[in-house]
Amino acid sequence: MGRPSDTLGDMTTPEHLDVVIVGAGLSGVGAAYRLRTECPGKSVAILEARDAMGGTWDLFRYPGIRSDSDMFTLGYPFRPWREAKSIADGPSILAYIRDTAAQFGIDRLVRYRTKVVAADFSTETARWTLTLHRRDERGDVETRVVTCDFLYSCAGYYDYDQGHDPVFPGIGSFRGEVVRPQFWPDDLDYAGKRVVVIGSGATAVTVVPSMAETAAHVTMLQRSPTWMGVVPGRDKFADKVRELLPANAAHRVIRTKNILFSLAFYQFCRRWPKAARKVLTKLSTKVLDDEAAIREHFTPTYDPWDQRLCAVPDADLFRAVKRGRVSVVTDHVDTFTPDGVRLRSGRELPADVVVTATGLRLLAFGGITPSVDGRRVELSEQFIWRGAMITGLPNFAVCVGYTNASWTLRADLTSRLVCRVVAHMDRHGYASVVPTPDRPLARRPLLDLASGYIQRAVDAFPRQGDRGPWRVRQNYVLDAVSTLRGDLGRQLVGTPRVLPASHGR
Fold it and tell me: In terms of Cα–Cα distance, which of 421, 429, 426 is closest to 393?
């Protein structure tokens, strides 16, 4: 694969690349590997707005940060996870991403402090023109331009610059420290202090038991319970298989087992929600040994997988509650006071530190608003094809992971699909391709979960349809078959490459 130059083009003579990847996180590194191995000879660059590789795993620094999926499926299929723990901590995942990039030369493709602020596709030239803000080490920003044949957004769908930040009455009067997990201060000292964590999602479930190790006491304050699944931090089956088989073969066996188990459990929850409620409740009760607490604080009104299930590795949250290091309170914030948080019930929770784990904000394509021939494309009016390409946007793909399984499972399939599309274009002499349905589609949300952070942003994303490749299935097995072997020509409309007038003379 051709290596891009180290300097971006200026406004008059822009550099041209075959493929531009936006984002140097878990997905972007995996995408670059696939393009390097399956589309050799293509020039590729990864544009990263931040100063470092790793995406989410470099940005988030809150205590206890970890994966909520097993690393045999969250890791790359082409580089087996070799660490002992199946549920890994953030620094280990970050090191894994960076080591992978270094091993395959992907780190040399990354251009840091380079943010895409505009992307326009020209139907005349069949190229994307990307306007970039490039920040130097002093913080000065200059505008550059680069063009590319294919644009692949691997920036995820979270807003890295700001989270969901509800307004709490009286927060200005609080004499303690208010901390947002997304912007965790390096110098925060909470040892021996009283901590209140507002929230009950994945971040809160991670932060609470970790802070409880040194804090005087931690209270998890939630408006309503969240379904939680107790999972082992270390996979005994994986340990045994790795003893018996070579590393690559063991990885394939473990990965396959975990994929099938997670898919089966998801289908069980969706088809038999009452039975799933009983199973999850029984597991939580077995660890906590307090049926009243389980009913009040750990039994949601919604069914499992109406919202994403929170993983509790080695039951650490429940064990912290059982030891008295953590309390769970289900109530609403009435107002902050100088010394803590007063609840709607009238109870006051004393606090020295309050952590607002109130959720993230979604942001489509890393904040890029794509346009075609200078006209903005309204994403909410478009449909997504095979969970990757979008109507109205030629030569464009977006990486969106599963909501019911490891992000990387679909991310890797999408990257392999992009490689197939690029090869398809070369094989048929197409300058551009765009997915186009053969008949009208019923409109459904792209991310079909009831979670608040998804519902708040539903209109910022394209829709999924009601059939075939226009549906975003939460089924890796079916997606793997259709993505790697499905016919591309039926839904991809191609525009032939126009040869110069002098060609053949």
Answer: 421
Residue type, 23: G
Q: Domain 15-160+362-496 belongs to what architecture?
A: 3-Layer(bba) Sandwich (3.50)
Gap between the Cα atoms of 475 and 266, Å rounded = 9
Q: What is the pLDDT of residue 6?
A: 45
Cross-strand bridge partners of residue 219: 196, 327
Domains 15-160+362-496 and 171-356 share a fold: yes
CB distance 44 to 185 below 8 Å: no
Cα–Cα distance measured from residue 129 to residue 250, given in angstroms and rounded to the nearest whole number: 44
Place of tokens 């140097």: 24
pLDDT along the chain (505 residues), means of 10: 47 86 97 97 96 93 92 95 92 97 97 96 97 90 96 85 81 96 92 96 95 98 94 92 92 95 93 96 93 94 89 94 96 97 97 91 80 94 94 95 89 96 96 94 76 60 89 89 84 79 39
Residue type for position 303: D
Residues ≥6 apart with Cβ < 8 Å to 274: none
Residue with tokens 């948080």: 341
- Domain 171-356: give its CATH superfamily: FAD/NAD(P)-binding domain (3.50.50.60)
Please say whether the beta carbons of 26 and 273 come within 8 A: no
373: Cβ contacts below 8 Å, ≥ 6 apart: 120, 121, 122, 123, 124
* Amino acid residing at 441: L
Query: How do the domains of the chain map onto residue ranges?
Result: 15-160+362-496, 171-356
Q: How far apart are CA 58 and CA 9, in angstroms?
A: 28
Those residues whose C-beta lies under 8 Å from the C-beta of residue 425, and which sit 6 or more positions away, are 431, 432, 433, 494
Residue count of the chain: 505
Convert 461-492 to b/e letters by CB count within 10 Å (16 or more is b).
bbbbbeebbbbbbbbbeebbebbeeeebeebb
Q: How far apart (Å, rounded) are the C-alpha atoms in residues 278 and 282? A: 6
